[in-house]
Design a protein that fits this description.
Blueprint: E1 4-15, E2 18-29, E3 33-37, H1 44-52, E4 59-64, E5 67-68, E6 78-81, H2 93-103, H3 108-121, H4 137-149, E7 155-159, H5 167-182, E8 186-191, H6 194-197, E9 202-207, E10 210-215, H7 217-224, H8 229-236
Parallel strand pairs: 3-8, 3-9, 6-7, 7-8
Antiparallel strand pairs: 1-2, 1-4, 4-5, 9-10
Length: about 240
Protein backbone atom coordinates (compact mmCIF):
# COMPACT_ATOMS: atom_id res chain seq x y z
CA UNK A 1 0.00 0.00 0.00
CA UNK A 2 1.31 3.45 -0.94
CA UNK A 3 2.58 5.68 1.83
CA UNK A 4 0.23 8.51 2.86
CA UNK A 5 1.80 11.96 2.95
CA UNK A 6 -1.41 13.74 3.98
CA UNK A 7 -4.15 12.48 6.29
CA UNK A 8 -7.26 14.62 6.64
CA UNK A 9 -9.14 13.27 9.64
CA UNK A 10 -12.80 14.29 10.06
CA UNK A 11 -12.04 17.94 9.36
CA UNK A 12 -14.75 20.57 9.62
CA UNK A 13 -14.47 24.35 9.48
CA UNK A 14 -16.98 27.02 10.44
CA UNK A 15 -16.87 30.80 10.19
CA UNK A 16 -19.55 32.09 12.52
CA UNK A 17 -22.75 30.35 11.44
CA UNK A 18 -21.35 29.34 8.07
CA UNK A 19 -19.97 25.81 7.68
CA UNK A 20 -17.24 25.77 5.01
CA UNK A 21 -15.93 22.20 5.42
CA UNK A 22 -18.01 19.26 6.61
CA UNK A 23 -16.34 16.19 8.06
CA UNK A 24 -13.65 15.70 5.39
CA UNK A 25 -11.85 12.33 5.56
CA UNK A 26 -9.07 11.67 3.03
CA UNK A 27 -5.61 10.16 2.50
CA UNK A 28 -3.23 11.55 -0.13
CA UNK A 29 -0.36 9.32 -1.21
CA UNK A 30 3.31 9.98 -1.78
CA UNK A 31 4.17 10.77 -5.40
CA UNK A 32 0.67 11.36 -6.76
CA UNK A 33 -0.99 14.35 -8.37
CA UNK A 34 -4.19 14.83 -6.39
CA UNK A 35 -6.79 17.33 -7.52
CA UNK A 36 -9.54 18.99 -5.53
CA UNK A 37 -12.31 19.72 -8.02
CA UNK A 38 -15.26 21.96 -7.28
CA UNK A 39 -16.90 25.31 -8.01
CA UNK A 40 -15.84 28.57 -6.39
CA UNK A 41 -16.93 28.66 -2.75
CA UNK A 42 -16.91 24.86 -2.40
CA UNK A 43 -14.22 24.93 0.32
CA UNK A 44 -11.13 24.00 -1.73
CA UNK A 45 -9.04 27.02 -0.74
CA UNK A 46 -9.91 26.70 2.95
CA UNK A 47 -8.83 23.05 2.91
CA UNK A 48 -5.47 23.58 1.22
CA UNK A 49 -4.72 26.56 3.48
CA UNK A 50 -5.15 24.19 6.40
CA UNK A 51 -2.83 21.63 4.80
CA UNK A 52 -0.09 24.23 4.45
CA UNK A 53 -0.62 25.49 8.01
CA UNK A 54 -2.16 28.89 7.27
CA UNK A 55 -5.49 27.97 8.84
CA UNK A 56 -6.77 25.47 11.39
CA UNK A 57 -9.88 23.28 11.41
CA UNK A 58 -12.74 23.86 13.82
CA UNK A 59 -12.91 20.09 14.34
CA UNK A 60 -10.68 17.20 13.29
CA UNK A 61 -7.02 17.37 12.35
CA UNK A 62 -4.70 17.49 9.34
CA UNK A 63 -1.56 15.32 9.47
CA UNK A 64 1.26 16.06 7.01
CA UNK A 65 4.48 14.00 7.01
CA UNK A 66 3.27 12.46 10.25
CA UNK A 67 2.93 15.82 12.06
CA UNK A 68 -0.20 17.70 13.02
CA UNK A 69 -0.59 20.97 11.14
CA UNK A 70 0.29 23.73 11.57
CA UNK A 71 3.95 22.82 12.07
CA UNK A 72 6.81 25.27 11.52
CA UNK A 73 9.26 22.38 11.22
CA UNK A 74 7.69 21.40 7.88
CA UNK A 75 8.02 24.76 6.11
CA UNK A 76 11.03 23.67 4.05
CA UNK A 77 9.31 20.47 2.90
CA UNK A 78 6.17 22.16 1.54
CA UNK A 79 5.77 24.50 -1.43
CA UNK A 80 2.60 26.61 -1.61
CA UNK A 81 1.07 28.82 -4.25
CA UNK A 82 -2.04 30.72 -3.17
CA UNK A 83 -4.80 32.16 -5.35
CA UNK A 84 -3.60 35.65 -4.47
CA UNK A 85 -0.09 36.36 -5.76
CA UNK A 86 2.18 37.01 -2.76
CA UNK A 87 4.68 39.10 -4.70
CA UNK A 88 6.41 42.45 -4.18
CA UNK A 89 5.35 44.71 -7.05
CA UNK A 90 8.20 47.19 -6.51
CA UNK A 91 10.82 44.45 -6.97
CA UNK A 92 11.94 42.67 -10.12
CA UNK A 93 11.22 39.01 -10.81
CA UNK A 94 14.78 38.13 -9.81
CA UNK A 95 14.62 40.18 -6.62
CA UNK A 96 11.37 38.47 -5.64
CA UNK A 97 12.90 35.05 -6.13
CA UNK A 98 16.09 36.10 -4.29
CA UNK A 99 13.91 37.06 -1.33
CA UNK A 100 11.97 33.79 -1.28
CA UNK A 101 15.17 31.80 -1.77
CA UNK A 102 16.66 33.46 1.31
CA UNK A 103 13.62 32.41 3.35
CA UNK A 104 14.34 28.80 2.41
CA UNK A 105 18.05 29.11 3.21
CA UNK A 106 19.24 28.79 -0.39
CA UNK A 107 22.67 30.35 -0.91
CA UNK A 108 25.43 30.85 -3.47
CA UNK A 109 25.47 28.75 -6.63
CA UNK A 110 22.58 26.61 -5.37
CA UNK A 111 20.37 29.70 -5.13
CA UNK A 112 21.51 31.01 -8.53
CA UNK A 113 20.89 27.64 -10.18
CA UNK A 114 17.43 27.19 -8.68
CA UNK A 115 16.32 30.70 -9.68
CA UNK A 116 17.46 30.09 -13.26
CA UNK A 117 15.74 26.69 -13.33
CA UNK A 118 12.34 27.84 -12.05
CA UNK A 119 12.30 30.89 -14.33
CA UNK A 120 12.92 28.57 -17.27
CA UNK A 121 10.11 26.26 -16.11
CA UNK A 122 7.57 29.10 -16.22
CA UNK A 123 9.16 30.74 -19.28
CA UNK A 124 10.07 34.02 -17.61
CA UNK A 125 13.84 33.92 -18.14
CA UNK A 126 13.64 36.91 -20.48
CA UNK A 127 11.77 38.99 -17.89
CA UNK A 128 14.11 38.42 -14.96
CA UNK A 129 14.89 42.13 -14.43
CA UNK A 130 11.39 43.45 -15.14
CA UNK A 131 9.47 44.97 -12.22
CA UNK A 132 6.53 42.83 -11.12
CA UNK A 133 4.35 45.95 -11.23
CA UNK A 134 4.73 45.74 -15.02
CA UNK A 135 3.73 42.06 -15.19
CA UNK A 136 0.41 40.88 -16.56
CA UNK A 137 -1.84 38.77 -14.35
CA UNK A 138 -0.67 35.59 -16.09
CA UNK A 139 2.99 36.52 -15.62
CA UNK A 140 2.40 37.07 -11.91
CA UNK A 141 0.81 33.60 -11.65
CA UNK A 142 3.84 32.10 -13.36
CA UNK A 143 6.26 33.91 -11.03
CA UNK A 144 4.27 32.75 -8.00
CA UNK A 145 4.55 29.19 -9.27
CA UNK A 146 8.30 29.64 -9.74
CA UNK A 147 8.61 30.81 -6.13
CA UNK A 148 6.79 27.73 -4.84
CA UNK A 149 9.21 25.46 -6.72
CA UNK A 150 12.43 27.14 -5.59
CA UNK A 151 13.34 24.87 -2.67
CA UNK A 152 12.33 21.61 -4.41
CA UNK A 153 9.62 20.74 -1.88
CA UNK A 154 8.49 17.18 -1.21
CA UNK A 155 4.87 18.37 -1.14
CA UNK A 156 3.65 21.03 -3.57
CA UNK A 157 0.24 22.61 -2.85
CA UNK A 158 -1.13 24.81 -5.63
CA UNK A 159 -4.40 26.74 -5.45
CA UNK A 160 -5.67 27.14 -9.03
CA UNK A 161 -2.12 27.47 -10.40
CA UNK A 162 -2.87 27.97 -14.10
CA UNK A 163 -5.65 30.57 -13.99
CA UNK A 164 -4.87 33.24 -16.58
CA UNK A 165 -2.12 31.20 -18.25
CA UNK A 166 -2.35 30.45 -21.97
CA UNK A 167 -3.04 26.84 -23.06
CA UNK A 168 0.43 26.18 -24.53
CA UNK A 169 2.24 27.23 -21.37
CA UNK A 170 -0.35 25.45 -19.24
CA UNK A 171 0.53 22.20 -21.00
CA UNK A 172 4.23 22.87 -20.39
CA UNK A 173 3.61 23.50 -16.68
CA UNK A 174 1.62 20.28 -16.36
CA UNK A 175 4.49 18.42 -18.00
CA UNK A 176 6.67 19.83 -15.23
CA UNK A 177 4.18 18.54 -12.63
CA UNK A 178 4.51 15.06 -14.14
CA UNK A 179 8.31 15.32 -13.93
CA UNK A 180 8.07 16.30 -10.27
CA UNK A 181 5.72 13.39 -9.62
CA UNK A 182 8.15 10.99 -11.28
CA UNK A 183 10.84 12.25 -8.90
CA UNK A 184 8.61 11.41 -5.92
CA UNK A 185 7.07 14.83 -5.26
CA UNK A 186 3.44 14.86 -4.14
CA UNK A 187 1.41 17.53 -5.95
CA UNK A 188 -1.96 18.82 -4.73
CA UNK A 189 -3.88 21.18 -7.01
CA UNK A 190 -7.27 22.84 -6.73
CA UNK A 191 -9.19 23.49 -9.92
CA UNK A 192 -12.62 24.10 -11.36
CA UNK A 193 -11.34 23.39 -14.90
CA UNK A 194 -12.52 19.99 -16.10
CA UNK A 195 -9.69 19.26 -18.54
CA UNK A 196 -7.16 19.87 -15.77
CA UNK A 197 -9.06 17.52 -13.50
CA UNK A 198 -8.55 14.80 -16.12
CA UNK A 199 -4.77 15.21 -15.78
CA UNK A 200 -4.74 14.26 -12.07
CA UNK A 201 -3.99 10.75 -10.79
CA UNK A 202 -6.91 11.03 -8.37
CA UNK A 203 -9.62 13.56 -7.69
CA UNK A 204 -11.56 14.65 -4.66
CA UNK A 205 -14.82 16.27 -5.72
CA UNK A 206 -15.99 18.97 -3.31
CA UNK A 207 -19.40 20.60 -3.24
CA UNK A 208 -20.77 22.84 -0.47
CA UNK A 209 -17.91 21.86 1.84
CA UNK A 210 -18.49 18.12 1.46
CA UNK A 211 -16.21 15.57 -0.18
CA UNK A 212 -18.73 13.90 -2.46
CA UNK A 213 -16.44 11.49 -4.34
CA UNK A 214 -12.81 10.32 -4.52
CA UNK A 215 -11.14 8.27 -7.24
CA UNK A 216 -9.23 8.32 -10.50
CA UNK A 217 -10.89 10.24 -13.33
CA UNK A 218 -11.66 6.94 -15.08
CA UNK A 219 -13.12 5.40 -11.91
CA UNK A 220 -15.37 8.39 -11.31
CA UNK A 221 -16.64 8.36 -14.89
CA UNK A 222 -17.19 4.59 -14.89
CA UNK A 223 -19.03 4.60 -11.55
CA UNK A 224 -21.48 7.22 -12.82
CA UNK A 225 -21.74 6.01 -16.41
CA UNK A 226 -20.43 9.39 -17.54
CA UNK A 227 -18.39 10.34 -20.59
CA UNK A 228 -16.76 13.33 -18.92
CA UNK A 229 -15.62 14.43 -15.47
CA UNK A 230 -18.12 17.29 -15.66
CA UNK A 231 -20.99 14.83 -16.09
CA UNK A 232 -19.64 12.68 -13.24
CA UNK A 233 -19.47 15.73 -10.96
CA UNK A 234 -23.07 16.60 -11.69
CA UNK A 235 -24.17 13.03 -10.90
CA UNK A 236 -22.26 12.92 -7.60
CA UNK A 237 -23.52 16.38 -6.73
CA UNK A 238 -27.10 15.35 -7.31
CA UNK A 239 -27.63 18.03 -9.93
Amino acid sequence: MEQSIVSINNVSKTFGKQTVLKNIQLEIRKGEIFGFLGPSGAGKTTLVKELVGLDTPTAGENIVFGEKMPSLSLIERIGYMSQADALYAELSAKENLEFFASLYGLKGQKRKGRIEAVLETVQLSGDIHKLVSNFSGGMKRRLSLAASLLHEPELLILDEPTVGIDPVLRKSIWNRFYELKNCGTTVIVTTHVMDEAEKCDRLGMIRDGKLIAVGTPDELKTQTGSRTIEEAFLVYGGV
